[in-house]
């Protein structure tokens, strides 16, 4: 791991008896970077965040900020600001009192407290509401107060636990953008947890995708989408067709029912594999088209949804895949159910995984 990382999580593990909630998590975060932990419920992402915050004691591992190990420190000594899913505002305190609570607990001088209060209120555009109580605010405004409270202590790391989950759907995008802009403007190093792909894609510099307590892949949005390391990543990020079959020669992939697909790449490893194809990267062709087919399929269903047509295509002998075709892209009407067509895709759209779920590289041209 790099010695230059601002925040380094090394071998972080949490076990509850025989159950391991988080297993050997390693993450590097640069100064000013927003890292988003993403994954399904129960994957370990929230436990990882709570381990970093100090609310849960690690079984083993290190949490280093600027080279100092925080793993043994109590939460109040970690200099981390936490924004909770439920906002956790004190209902009997005003906006100003909620924001300055942490500063007063740290016994900062009154003048410094007032200066920081003015600074964060201006930053989140809540100055006119300083004397209001949480019950007098909208959900989005309450979230900004919670964020302001975390920002006021000038944390070394900002931690966000599902910060948008309690907001109405129409508010989430705007509040996500606000949080991201504030994080960038303040140069804050941030670690955020969400199960929502759209939030993760909008807010992250890099994503950490987790499953069953383990990190599956770390990278940019483009890297996880275009170059998934295993079938779980391909399935969870966006949508993928995962087709099981056997690689019988360099570019021939045979399905259990006997259908044959001609692959775009050439591969040396024979035997059972899983082919991943994004629905929007597969193209549909009729009998008159010149494109060399990769497979012949039958249209099982076609649904017009405005910007594209959703197709379900079946292979002879069993098996199917989904395809999203932009409206009008084929220059013809929607294909009829039962029609036989061919499909194509290019090499960049193809991802092959071996029986161990590891990605298999195509031979160089």
CATH topology of the largest domain: Rossmann fold
Number of helical regions: 8
Major beta sheet, strand line-up: 6-7-8-3-9-10
Q: Overall mean pLDDT score? A: 91
The level-1 CATH class of the largest domain: Alpha Beta
- Helix and strand content put the structural class at alpha+beta
Strand element count: 21
The largest β sheet comes out as: 6 strands, mixed
**Uncertain segments:** none
**SSE order, as H and E?**
EEEHEEEHHHEHEHEEHHEEEEEEEEEEE
Beta percentage is 25-35%
CATH H-level superfamily title of the largest domain: P-loop containing nucleotide triphosphate hydrolases
Distance between the termini: 33 Å
Radius of gyration: 25 Å
Helix content: 10-25%
User: What overall form do the CA principal axes indicate?
Assistant: elongated
What are the salient characteristics of this protein?
single chain; 365 residues; alpha+beta; Rossmann fold; OB fold (Dihydrolipoamide Acetyltransferase, E2P); 2 domains; six-stranded mixed β-sheet; 8 helices
Question: Could you explain the architecture of this structure?
Answer:
This protein has 365 residues and is α+β, with helices and mostly antiparallel strands. The protein has two domains: 7-226, Rossmann fold (3-Layer(aba) Sandwich), CATH 3.40.50; 239-360, Nucleic acid-binding proteins (OB fold (Dihydrolipoamide Acetyltransferase, E2P), Beta Barrel), CATH 2.40.50. The chain has eight helices and 21 strands. The strands form four sheets. A six-stranded mixed beta sheet has the order 6-7-8-3-9-10, sandwiched between helices. β9 (206-211) and β10 (214-219) form a beta hairpin. α2 (95-105) packs across α3 (110-123), α2 packs parallel to α4 and α3 crosses α4 (139-152). The two termini are 33 Å apart.
